[in-house]
Amino acid sequence: MDMDGPQRPVDQPLASRAGDPGSDYPVHGNESTARGTIFGGRRRLVRAGAVLGSVALVAGALVAYGSSNGGATGPGQMPPPEVSVSTVLTQNVQPWDEFTGRVTAVESVELRPRVSGYVERVAYEEGQFVRKGELLFLIDQRTYRAEHARARAELARARSEAALARSQDERTQALVQARAASQEESDERSAAADQSLAAVRAAEAALERARLDLEFTEVRSPIDGRAGRALVTAGNLAQADSTLLTTVVSVDPVYVYFDTDEQTYLRYLALARSGERATSGNAVRIGLANEAGFPHAGSVDFIDNQVDAGTGTMRARALVPNPDLLLTPGLFARVQVQAGDDRAALLIDDKAVLTDQDRKYVYVLGPGNAAVRKDIELGRTAGDLRVVTAGLTASDKVIVNGVQKVFFEGMPVSPQLVAMGKSPASALRVAAGTN
What we know:
Elements: H1 14-17, H2 29-70, E1 82-87, E2 89-94, E3 96-105, E4 108-111, E5 117-122, E6 129-130, E7 135-139, H3 142-177, H4 183-216, E8 218-220, E9 225-227, E10 237-238, E11 246-249, E12 254-261, H5 262-273, E13 283-288, E14 296-303, E15 313-320, E16 332-338, E17 343-349, E18 354-356, E19 359-365, E20 371-382, E21 385-390, E22 397-401, E23 414-417, E24 428-429
Parallel strand pairs: 1-23, 2-24
Antiparallel strand pairs: 1-22, 2-17, 3-12, 3-16, 4-11, 5-7, 5-10, 6-9, 7-8, 9-11, 12-15, 13-14, 13-16, 14-15, 17-21, 18-19, 19-20, 20-21
């Protein structure tokens, strides 16, 4: 035994001594081997735990499958999962087709001055509602007042000259009767009287024009509506029929323009010919981007006279009352158009619908409380409810809640009967959304 080197304490753990920077003992081969053995054992334990977890899952599935085949639940077997089932709802529904559109003002005016001049005053509050005839801008009136006064004076002069010419014509006519004046002089006096009368009419027209120009210096709103911002402020030059001062748009009612696709337009024509849909005045419902449902009601009042060949769509327009002024021109709108008369339909909760690639299906309650798959064809939506056009009958009980617990067709379940979706209205209104 070598007694010259440092002695290792027998009771010090190997892990605390191996590779310790403060220790005088180096890491020996047998110590590193021991450490590798420790960590390797831990990894094997982790892998073993994962294998045991997988075995447990497989065993659970086998137990469930055994219970489905054996019928009764024996010791150690999982009970059937609890699910909620609802009987298919039969209800009269009114079909609605859904589109997107834009809110537009019924009346929209770009306000421009009818005379040129410098803006003296902006007489309204920007963004506020204005009445028809309310003063919005005032253009400097001084030059127009002077022109109006000059035209009034010209009219007075013309009337005076006309009175003199008429008096001279009358005297000449009397002299002609007395053979004291020639017929030529009489004709000249008569023509002068007519010319003076024409001058009076011209002066009256000039005065009327001056009056209008003076009136046009007061720029007033031509409609009831909401005024935009003032694009020209006091002190700036406004050119007649050129400078845009502001805009005014009407707010109640409003238009909603939307485009229908060619197939829908042809379907509407066919329904109208068969008497299943009105040719005009069809009801519409409008919803804004932040609104749930379609709270605003209106009617179609215009359909374009041709299909847009570039997009294959037909432009239509709805007239919608807007008493609360929520429908601001320019807003995006969701539009529902009445597509036909009420008809009976089968409805299910939309949460019950599952997807298998391109097919839709549901699980219904079969004999022995077994889950039976049925492929279905879907129609329109109605809130949480969905119209089923094929695949179900009115007596089917559909699994609504807990469908994720059904792993395979024929799996037994423990059903609890609940109502189908929300309580429907007496005449359920549905929106388009076919899949």
